[in-house]
User: Fold this.
Amino acid sequence: MREISFSQALNEAMSEEMRRDASVFLMGEDVGVFGGVFGVSAGMLAEFGEERVRDTPISEAAIVGGGLGAALVGMRPIVEIMFADFVTVAMDQVVNQVAKARAMSGGKASVPLTIRLVNGAPGSAAAQHSQSPEAWFMNVPGLKIVLPTTPYDAKGLLKTAIRGDDPVLFFEHKNLYAVTGEVPEEDYTVPFGQAAIRREGSDATVIAIGGVSATVAEAAERLAESGISVEIIDPRTLVPLDTETLVNSVKKTHRAVIVHEAHRRAGPGAEIAAILAEQAIGYLDAPILRVATKNVPFPYNPDLEQFILPTVDDVVAAVEGVVKYML
Amino acid sequence: MTQAPTNLLHLYRQMATIRQFELRAINERRSGLIPGFIHSCVGQEATAVGACAALNRDDVIASTHRGHGHLIAKGGEPKYMMAELAGRSDGYCGGKGGSLHLSDFDLGILGANGIVAGGIPMAAGAALAFQMRGEDRVALVFFGDGAVNEGAFHEAANLAGLWKLPVIFFCENNLYGEGTPQHKQTPIPDLSARAPGYGFPGVIVDGNDVLAVLETTRQAVARARAGGGPTFIEAKTYRQRGHYEGDPMIYRSQEEMEAWKQRDPVVGFRKWLEDSNTVEPGALDATDAEVQALLDDAVAFAAASPPPAPESALEGVYGDTHGGRVF
Assistant:
């Protein structure tokens, strides 16, 4: 099968959906002429024109709120937040307007709005261009939260987001854009709420969320060399969350480590740990551990940044800790 | 496009309906039928009716926390509104929205809003959809004088001016943002003065004169339909009651309130119709009686409507998965 990049997969998903459905359009800061600051929408302006690949002012509330209004009257907008950190400017729109429109109307409003957000570190982008804020929104009913980690999933999940009738926060980790992988030429989608088992194993379950996929894969290789068999689960969507696959894996391995780049305190791992404790505590042979970014704003200096991020060593140590744990 | 001749009695009927709806809602809140709070629009009937009379059925409005009048003027039925205020299953939103989130997408009512300026980007987005699809439709967004100091207003106004969107920014300047007078919130006397900064005209109209509001809005709508872009209409009016029912109103004088009551828009328009012999003798009394009966029915309908089943709280949050239930 052909291999393309994560970025190209996203581009194909948007382009193919725009070809098949005239109500789909893309809007955001520098998505048109510039092709997106990370190049994801490169070439789309030439094919679709500036009506449907629409450069906006730097106005996140108007971008998200405008997308909502268009969605409410029958369009399927894709809006881009250049850095996920900037979503704070549109927080009322995301949290009070977009997320709640359907529920407030008694289920009548349909909000087919996809909000693409670029998250992640490292890169010395410092405190306002590096965050992974997905957990902020897990506490807001009405949103769906997606974090693809492979080109295949990037394309299939984005198509599901665009075709769906609910608002989706679609987080793209900036360091995944260049990752390549197999992506079929023919049309396909990846459903929400189905985790992927990235590696089968028996000694510990590592739940790897979003951009930490390579870190966790490398850790699993190292652990295998020392005879520890790791099962890696990629939830793919945090809302809805495939608790069944997570719980079943933990019932098999009896140990769980959750890894993410969001800050540790009340990050996605906190919710997942709570679910595992509620549904599988009798199967656990060790505490549930979290490996995540330390609870400080992202520092600029590369060494400081590396110091706060979850590393391969951190994952290895955590897994070794739960495997060797003695009650 | 040609305008149907204005049915003056219909305008009066709508204004009287709004007035009576508000007074009945206030009573029913005291009686316990309505559990939540109410921001009444008594004194602002002419803005709602004049503005919506300039719209077609397929045009859309976005409204505010003081939105009952806007909904009635856009075709909302008092009985479903009253049932919603009562939190009952037959309300427009099945009892999930209440006064602050009333909506009816079939009537082009994108929703009241609990957030000041929250609906303004939404209206711009709906207008964008109409423009992109080449439809002869406009969006009109109501907001108060307080909203022009919110970021969402500025972002949406700039975007709408830039793209010449068919949207009317309708500011009901009732002189108070909650308990603080306009002159303590904004350094300019006329809020419409902001419009030229976004590249579109701002006009001032007597918000207590329904025919003046209608004519001004018609011009703005015609301009929007012709591709001329937005207009900011500042309708100077007055909120006769408190910000909410129960507001002690210690921030303004009895003299001021009395003076504005002398300019009551409903009483004034009724008198004008009477004095100018523009309607059949007896028609106004008959209309008043009709409105009374309509509101009697609305209150009875609300009181008789069954409360929603508690489990319905879990439905209608999402559209296309899990049967709309939460996950």
